[in-house]
Amino acid sequence: MSVSSDEPVAPAAWAAERFGRHAGELAAAVPMRLAHAHAKAHAAHLAVGLKKRSPYGVALAGVVRENLAQAARELGESVRDVRGYEYAVINDHALFPFRYADRPRPLDRARLPSNASPIRRRLFRAHGPQPPEGLFDLDDGLATEEYLGLHEAFEELGASTRLVCVFFTADAENGIHAIHWGEAHLEPDRTFTWLHKEQLPVAAVPLG
Asked: Which residue intervals of 49-149 are DSSP H helices?
């Protein structure tokens, strides 16, 4: 179920620890930035005039990244370019936006697509949280060069930068359904184990 509110979000202790003095502003900015991104992507979808949903999804992904990057700039924080994609970095925490479904769906059903780029997987492996102790350990005999490469930190982000997930569901007709942020470990089957998660309110779609 989505949460809707026109009031700023009071930052939780987890957000304050990650984003410092910007936690409250960021918690309020993320829903607004996603709402604006939907409006822009929906307009692009209508302009293309195709019945299939792909124009909306492609446009939304790009605009969401741009909007979060702009939010970081307005807060006086960093924007890092990783292989041609801009990521907002606030207090050494990079925001990773991901639309995990085009219909309302529980967060525990989120799964990285099978055709996800190695860049996405490497972001989680190198900058995401480690799995709970004692779980999902890799046998030494399976530590291939490819696997080890996924654990190399991106120099563009910096080895100390940690990943914060911004997962949401949305569709062209109804906009953003739900927004969650937190820290998730990517599993071998492309599902996620959440070490921390919080739901953010959904902002109203801007008029005009």
From this structure: 54-74, 118-127, 145-149
